[in-house]
Automatic annotation (TrEMBL):
Domain EAL: 24-278
Keywords from the named record: c-di-GMP
GO terms classed as biological process: cellular response to nitric oxide; phosphorelay signal transduction system
Protein name: cyclic-guanylate-specific phosphodiesterase
Keyword Plastid: no
Molecular function as annotated in GO: cyclic-guanylate-specific phosphodiesterase activity
Amino acid sequence: SAKGMGRNNFQTYVAVPEESHQQRIALETKLRVAERNNELRVYYQPQVDSLTEDIVGMEALIRWEHPELGMISPGFFIPLAEETGLIVSIGEWVLRVACNDTKRWQNRFNLPLRISVNLSALQIKQPNLVEIVRNVIDETGIDPTLLDLEVTESISVKSIPNLMETLQALRDLGCRISIDDFGTGQSSLDYIRRFPADKIKIDQVFVRNIGVDPDDEAIVRATINMAHSLKLGVVAEGVEIEEHFNFLRDHGCEELQGYLFCRPLAPVSFENMLAERERLFGAGSGSVEITAR
Ligand code: C2E
Ligand code: MG
Ligand code: MG
Ligand code: MG
């Protein structure tokens, strides 16, 4: 299949660590073409309530559907998009598409679905980010309190002097801010305390080791407790097995995201999944197990 083929071809094509300057330029050109030719896709991965297993929202995750190489993961091209500045227009496009799709599904299924969109540091640096987000909210009619913007913990005030003000301005629009990949950066606790955020996302490197490494389990527990003490919500990513799920739920992590529940889905598959749930459990119903599991 095109997908399987893409995987294999891609490795010889990019080889990220030792890629040559020429390969990089070639990839940059292809990425520009991809944007123009509508080869970029937004996939959606559900986030579920750990107690009820309701779908409470989903994360928008970009994909590149290359005509010959198949589906290319963002791990390969987002760093390049950031280096070249292409992430600014790509990120705005993702935001608009994600809000549009979400608004449509909120209406069709009568569910208060929340959408999480990743923001890159370069987007936050743009002086007009808040204006862009406001425009997308106005154009799509999305409830801003259901728009969650994820910024990675490693984002720094040194490189983005307007970071705190910008995040606060986004919250003033009604949006929520999540600290993504939490625990993998070098933030001080003082920095975390002052960070204008609503939620912490525990990184999958810690979740992966639940049931394996007691130190990582201790970090997960401490993170959940710290978040709650600071009046922040907690979501865990990379939940792959029941053992992760049970541990996180039992330690009070309120939301979960991972392959155990569902992989990131193409919009049509995501919509079909919601339709199937509605068929099985009734309109507006969420108090049921996610069927994809
Ligand atoms: P992230 O924001 O931390 O997203 C979570 C990643 O974990 C996603 O990888 C998701 O597919 C993956 N994941 C979800 N559940 C599991 C699981 O159970 N096990 C494992 N091993 N992985 C799981 P993905 O889609 O490849 O995205 C990678 C990164 O690319 C994202 O990490 C994010 O930093 C970046 N990214 C994706 N879309 C965008 C975007 O629209 N804008 C920006 N700026 N960055 C994006
Ligand atoms: Mg994220
Ligand atoms: Mg993350
Ligand atoms: Mg991550």
